[in-house]
Amino acid sequence: MKNKLFISLVLLSFQSFAADTFNLVTEFSSLSFATIKKQYVVEPATISGLTGSVDSSGQFAVIVPVANIDTDVAIRNERLNSLFFNSSANPVMMISGKFDLASLTQPISKVLVPANVSFYDTNKTFNFPVIITKTDHAITVHSYAPVIVKASDFGIPAANLTKLAATVDGLALSDAVPVNINLVFNK
User: Whole-number mean pLDDT of the chain?
Assistant: First the structure.
């Protein structure tokens, strides 16, 4: 009897915890950026397959699988993965942080969310300007302005950018990109 009661309490606690967690909806979530070559040619890229969650206190964690990059050009995807990101050694980017979910009293809020981004064995905090839409069963987070990220922010070797540039006849490539996020969480 005690074992049944204990198991029931554990299951009830787990259900209560799970009910307070919003899980990332992978098919509606992405991180996007644009590479810039020759100072004016912009090439968009999207990384999909994200996973993660946000709890009722606003603590969040998102895993970005870098190998899922999609530029709509297969050879560009391959080169970004192998030459620039070295995604076999650095397969994921981790984004984590906390925002005050309880302070979002309106269904739609414009906020600046600090987030720790971990990639290439380096951590850096960025402030993401986002629109958060909150309902009883969903939270959406979308950039209202990009965050500028440099390869040097994560210690990605300049040689990686040089190798990538060599594949396009040595054209100048910017080491800074504008990054946007689109995240959908459901209970």
Answer: 89
Residue appearing with tokens 């009883």: 136
User: What is the model's pTM?
Assistant: 0.86
Q: What are the Cα distances from residue 152, in Å, to 104, 108, 144?
A: 34, 34, 24
Greater confidence (106 vs 16) lies with: 106
Q: What is the mean pLDDT of residues 141-167?
A: 94
